[in-house]
Amino acid sequence: MEDFEKILLYHFEKYPLMTPVDAVKLCYQSAFGCGHLVKNRDFALSMLKKELDETKPEPGAQLFESIGGGYLRIDLHKAKAAMIPEGKIAEIFIKSANSGEKTELEPKIEVLEKLAKEGRTPFSEEALSEYLSGYNGETVSHSGEYKKAYFPAYRVILEKLSEDLQ
Questions:
Q1: DSSP state, residue 77
Q2: How far apart are CA 115 and CA 5, in angstroms?
Q3: How many angstroms separate the CA atoms of 111 and 4, rounded?
């Protein structure tokens, strides 16, 4: 879990306005990938097209960001700027959803709690504890603060498939 601690610390530094919900979302995606978003190929492609239509291209953005568990987030701002075909992104996203390794969420949450207790998160230990007391172990959306500050637009893919997008 030492590697996951480093991933959390990287995200806290890059996204200092993260809230407990954003950190738990990262833990969830690192444990389970993106299978919850793929109902079928047509649905996945239509959702991707819709999001890409609403996404501003950012040539300077980082294309991939590690989230642990063998997964990456591919930034759609950069993908759009690099003109990576949406069909290719959808294909890798779907393959990732159907073949990812699932890990346990609880150990990742424990790492998050440890960092909060040590004062190494952008939110308090109390805020995390309060959030987790009502958390049911399912996927969540980013917080409004995170969305407003960072305009997240990405897909979670398997790291081993990322070379197919470069």
A1: H
A2: 8
A3: 8
CB-based contacts of 49: which residues, under 8 Å, 6+ apart? Answer: 86
Q: CA 89 → CA 35, 106, 115, distances in Å?
A: 15, 30, 33
Confidence of residue 23 (pLDDT cuts 50, 70, 90): very high
The answer to whether the beta carbons of residues 18 and 123 sit under 8 Å apart is: yes
Could you tell me the two tokens for 62? 């980082």
Q: What is the chain's length?
A: 166
SS3 content of the chain, % helix, strand, coil (to 5): 60, 10, 35
Q: Is the pLDDT of residue 108 over 70?
A: yes
Give the type of residue at 62: Q
Element (H, E) at 57: none
Q: Where are the beta strands (DSSP E) in the chain?
A: 64-68, 71-75, 154-158
Mean pLDDT value of segment 87-116: 88
As a whole number, mean pLDDT of residues 147-166 equals: 91
Note the pLDDT of residue 44.
81
Task: Note whether 100 and 158 are within 8 A (CB).
Answer: yes
Q: Which residues contact 135 (CB under 8 A, 6 or more apart)?
A: 24
